[in-house]
Design goal:
Layout: H1 4-15, E1 32-35, E2 38-42, H2 55-68, H3 76-80, H4 83-96, E3 100-104, H5 107-118, E4 124-128, H6 133-141, E5 145-149, H7 154-163, E6 169-174, H8 186-196, E7 199-203, H9 218-222, E8 229-234, E9 244-248, H10 250-259, H11 261-264, H12 271-285, H13 288-304, E10 311-312, E11 319-325, H14 327-339, E12 342-343, E13 346-347, E14 357-362, H15 369-383
Amino acid sequence: MPYAEFQRELDERAALGLLRQRKVLKSPQAPHIVIGKTPYLAFCSNDYLGLANHPQLIAALQQGAAQYGVGAGAAHLVSGHGIAHHQLENALATFAKKPAALLFSTGYMANLGAVQALVGKGDTVFADKLNHASLNDAMLLSRATVKRYRHGDMTQLAQLLEQAGSGRKLIVTDAVFSMDGDLAPLPELLALCEQHDAWLLVDDAHGFGVLGEQGRGSLAHFGITAQRIIYMATLGKAAGVFGAFVAAERVVIGTLINHARSYVYTTATPPALSSVVLESLKLIVQGDALREHLRKLIGQLRDGLAGLPWKLMPSDTAIQPLLIGDNHAALALSEALRERGIWVAAIRPPTVPQGTARLRITLSAAHSTDDVARLIEALHELAQ
């Protein structure tokens, strides 16, 4: 067999409780989903505001497809940059309170493109050890020197900045850490950037639409702004659609247009999707009631799971990780919930550090208090 080595590696992953497999949904993204013929109450989507199946967005997509068709046909720099893309970039810049913005197909591609365009050989990237894989891959591909600091450790980061040589300095960080749910100390990071003449790239995939005034994200949450901040956020989580963008000074966006390979050398996203995100931004701005309901659900869950043998990790966001530790134990608990009609994903290494396998509970404004109560009751039953 020409692929026997691959099969052995997959078998080894299965024995360690690390094999990844997909499940096929037959329903729209929502708290109540159908997999196969079985209905489940799901707590594993990043659809934080419950917009992925919103009727206004569905109507906007239908109208956008009728107006612009279903494909962009070319890269943005050839003939694929439509009026809907252009209008959305302007709206996202205004929303993020930055001079300009640039659309990317995914957050992964946005991070790859931005980091590689801004730094290279002779420069240094400083990264939190719990950053998303896209930031990790981006800094390695950039060929810059990489310095990683312990999660949230500003003292160690300051020491690394002091020791850095000449060249550009770029700090990259998640704003809300995707597997832990905690927030990066963005004001402290910005202060270090000011002190050491560094740039700060903030990946706000899980804060955009949820945190800050009118859901404007983690920068608004902390009340900070600066020219040296480069802001990235995704449009497939709280916004409920697809894509990502970088917002920054015009010279930064101009640099990305010319040098970000994941922007230059790929087909533009369907313009109809941009018209949907424009509608989604309106819902986000008007979504204070959704965000308040989500905050109440977070409090309900944290209060309800107190006293369990598994501990919720410190998080005030919609990401509520329940630390299990052992890979097989995390899988077994996930399966036991599934047998009760509740879907919560088990997250294992290498996505998280060894020995920290967990259930990644994610809440949405589309959940009800009864939904959360059902999860709390099931976990208490399983704890016994």
